[in-house]
TrEMBL record:
It comes from marine metagenome. Pfam families: Acyl-CoA_dh_M, Acyl-CoA_dh_N. Residues 8-119 form the Acyl-CoA dehydrogenase/oxidase N-terminal domain. Residues 123-194 form the Acyl-CoA oxidase/dehydrogenase middle domain. GO terms for cellular component: cytoplasm. This is Medium-chain specific acyl-CoA dehydrogenase, mitochondrial.
């Protein structure tokens, strides 16, 4: 199936191609020889330029200062960025539209919008050893006590956790016969990285395993709940 790009999609595609060619591809070999890691000043430059070009806001609603691009337009961008090896295009965060639909205004201000500006980076704590990424089988739990939730569970393959500063943590709610997502700051007490298995690629972003042991968070960090 052939998709003909309109002028807007073509303009974004061209912008992404130039960025990949000028800022990312020249560092592929260097990254390969250094476990995917580039010098801090190069990584900071690439991140800053990507944000300037608007790549961190392509799926953000216009009401929040984003570009709210169509899926075809976004694919045209990522097809170009994806030409580069070593995940060098992962140098910036990209908030997703669903986050603005699911989160409260307070959560958007504290977690989601700072991703767009490059001040925060997220990671997903969903996969488990038994259920994989099938959320119907997760065993991690969240119990509500007063104005807090207590989180327990073990999460595998938490991609980019070594570079992130907060988790999207998926858990069952035994007290409500339900499940929910929680925003959890990485430095919260009770969070421990228990493994960091090697993979057959050369990425700066790792895929470690984390244990959440009686992690206490405010109730307002449950996604969608004030």
């Amino acid at each position: 199936m052939k998709i003909n790009l309109n002028d807007k999609a073509t303009a974004w595609q061209t912008k992404a191609r130039r960025y990949a060619d000028e800022y990312l591809q020249p560092h592929e070999v260097e990254a390969e020889l250094n476990e995917g890691i580039l010098p801090p000043e190069i990584n900071a430059r690439n991140k800053e330029r990507a944000i300037e070009l608007g790549f961190s806001a392509i799926d953000v609603p216009t009401s929040y200062g984003g570009h709210e691009l169509s899926m075809v337009e976004q694919v045209a961008i990522w097809e170009q960025l994806g030409r580069v090896t070593n995940a060098l295009s992962w140098c910036f965060s990209e908030p997703q539209r669903w986050m603005f639909e699911a989160c409260t205004e307070e959560q958007i201000a504290r977690y989601v919008l700072p991703m767009m500006s490059g001040k925060r980076k997220d990671c997903y704590a969903i996969t488990e050893s038994g259920s994989g990424s099938d959320v119907a089988g997760i065993t991690a739990t969240a119990h509500s006590i007063d104005d807090q939730y207590i989180l327990n569970g073990e999460k595998w393959y938490v991609t980019s956790a070594n570079l992130a500063d907060f988790f999207w943590f998926h858990a069952r709610l035994p007290d409500e016969n339900d499940e929910a997502l929680f925003l959890v700051d990485k430095r919260t007490d009770g969070i421990e990285m228990i493994a960091n298995p090697p993979f057959s690629h050369t990425y700066a972003a790792h895929h470690p395993t984390f244990k959440f042991n009686n992690v206490r968070i405010p109730a307002n960090q449950r996604v969608g709940k004030p």
